[in-house]
Structure formats: C-alpha cells, structure tokens
Amino acid sequence: MTAAQQNNHLLIGTPAKVIADGPILMRTCRNIFEGITFAQQQPFDRVFVVYSEIPEPKLQALEALHQVCPEATICLLIQMVEEPGVHEWLRSCSWVNGCLDYLICPLSVKALFLEKAAELRDVLDMTIDDRDKDRRIRELGELIIQDDLTGLKNRRYLRQFLPAILKKADASQCQVTLLLFDIDDFKHYNDTYGHPVGDKVLRQTAKLIRRCCRNQDVVVRLGGDEFAVVFWDVPEGQTYKGVSSDRRRSSQNHPRQAVFMAERFRHEMSDTPFDQLGPQGRGSLTISGGVATFPMDAENAQELFRKADQAMLEAKRSGKNCIYLVGRPT
After folding, report:
1. Which end of the chain lies in a sparser environment, N or C, as judged by fewer CB atoms within 10 Å?
2. What percent of the chain has pLDDT over 90?
3. pLDDT tens column, 303-327
4. Lowest-confidence range among 98-102, 191-195, 278-282?
C-alpha cells in the first residue's frame, strides 16, 4: 500500500479483532468518537469500523460518522455469527445508499487491501464511479457464500457458520437446532417436467422456507434439492446486535420452536399450488427432514450435522412427508 493509500483509509477499533496477519498500513484510532474527529481533519476514501465496538445506539453513531465524511465508504468489520443480523439491519437503513458495507472477519491484510482488491477492480468497467465499483466487488464476494439459483446461503457458508455459532452458543449456554430436509421424490419431477421446471420449484421452496423462519435463522441450500436451516437464539434477557425485534428468547422449548417452524413449512409445501407442475401441483410436493439440537444431541458441528442427517434418513424410511427428531418422530 502506498503512502497516499495509507492516508486515505481509516480503521476504527481494535486491529487484533479483525486482521488475521500482517501490519496495519493505515490510520487507526481507538473508537468512533476519535474517528469522527480524524474525519473532520482530513478526507478518507474508506473507513473500516469494528462493528462490535460501536457504542449504542449504533445507527446514530454511524450516521454521525457518515455526516463528517459523506464521500467515504464506511465498511463494518463483523464476525460471521453477526452477519445474518447485520445484513437485515443494513437493509432497513434508509440513509445507506451504497455508502455502508460490511466484511466478515478475520481478514488477511494482503487480500483486503492489496492483491485481491486490485485483481477484482481489474475485471470491472473502470468508467463506473468508485461506490459502484465497491458494490460490485461486494457482489463478487457474496457469490462465494451464496447459492446462485435460490439466493440462499450455500454449503461453504454453513461449513464456516455452524462451528462459529456453536462456539458462541456454548459460551452463552444457549441452544442451536439444525434442520436438514429434502423434497420427496424430486428426481421424478425433474425427469417428468424437465430441469427448468425443477429449478423453479427449488426457488419457490426457498421462498417458502425463508418465510417460515425468523430473520436470524440461517437457511442454506446444500445442493440439489437438499436444504438446511440453523435455528439459534440468544440467552434470556439479552439482545443481539443488529437483529430484528422478532428474535425469540432462548428457552428449554427451543427445539419445539424449531420443529414447529419446520412442521409449518412442511404443511405450506403441501398446500402451495406449484403451477409449474400443472393441475397436480397442489398437494403433490412433500418434504422429509431431520432435526438435531446442540448441546443435547451433539457436541460439535460435525456430529450435529451427522445426527440431523440420520434423523432425516429415518423420516425417509418411515414413509416420507414427516420431520424426525433424533431417534423419534415429531
């Protein structure tokens, strides 16, 4: 990074929380109040802010920062477990207009500021303005963790998110429930109606399961007609940064809440008219799923996935169109 680039970037917060390797080659400050002072004294192209260190109310603090550096892109540096809530929160911010973004940490200094950023910008049309380039770079990054057919998170994202949220749940003494499911006899529909129709069914299925879940629950397409949902809560009496107000408190009934939402989705699948399948579309699609809960059924992410998969296989063997808890039907 050149001296000019160093002067045009500001990091607000503790570098050790977000940077995986290498020195910080930019202006740094301890908190957002110092950052506002720095931004009043000199212009910055990009301002990176450690999200967990922004004081409440966060939106007002960021808005104050934006007011003193309106031309800068403000990038929140977040942990993966914060991403679902932050994503929803940013969508609700009316003043953002492309000037507020986020990156998931830990980050490599080289990848963030040097080689990768330069490589991505090389493939973009350099006639577009800087904010649009940043937006398109963000979109390229999302493709890595997003399923391009349904818009849900993909298997790669789940592989990183599940261990992270279990670690958080273990520290907070709360529960995480994993649902795995697939569409019964989906190959038959693909073979009968063709893959374009099958793709439409998968997209509609993704919309239905997303509608049956809460904002913080993470919905994933694993591949083909296989999906996963991670249901998670915060400890009773606490709130989680950035998550919408529909979050329910953690309780001993957490698995029941997850099963209730899974059963609601199963019924919606049966009741929804899939017009792509013609007159037989209503009531013809069913799902089979398995549910496992941490820490009751498993001690780590790999075991939790295996237990939920076993429960799903039991649901298939029992005649399909049902949801199984580990070792028993719902």
Report:
1. N
2. 25
3. 999 999 999 999 999 999 999 988 6
4. 278-282
| CATH for 169 | 3.30.70.270
Q: Please give the pLDDT value at position 148.
A: 84
The helix (H) or strand (E) run that includes residue 6 is helix 3-7
Tokens standing for residue 45: 């192209």
Question: What span, in angstroms and rounded, lies between the C-alpha atoms of 137 and 126?
Answer: 12
DSSP for 177-198 reads EEEEEEETTHHHHHHHH-HHHH
Domain count, the chain: 2
Give the Cα-Cα-Cα angle 227, 234, 309 (nearest 5 degrees): 25
For 40, other C-beta atoms within 10 Å of its C-beta total 10
Are 241 and 52 spatial neighbours (Cβ–Cβ below 8 Å)?
yes
Same domain, 125 and 167: no
Segment 254-292, tens digit of pLDDT: 567 788 888 889 988 888 888 777 766 666 789 999 999
* Residue 298 confidence class, pLDDT cut points 50, 70, 90: very high
Domain finish residue from 119, 145, 171: 145
Q: What CATH number has the domain bearing residue 138? A: 3.40.50
Residues 202, 318, single domain; the answer is yes
Point out the domain boundary residue: 93, 118, 145: 145
Q: Residues with Cβ < 8 Å from 32, sequence gap 6 or more?
A: 12, 49, 53, 54, 55, 61, 62, 64, 65
Residue 186 lies in domain: 153-329
- 276 and 159, same domain (yes or no): yes
Q: Are 137 and 185 found together in one domain?
A: no
Do 243 and 299 belong to one domain?
A: yes
State residue 74's pLDDT score. Answer: 86
- Model pLDDT for residues 127-138, shown as the tens digit of each residue: 345 555 455 545
Residue linked to tokens 């699609």: 285
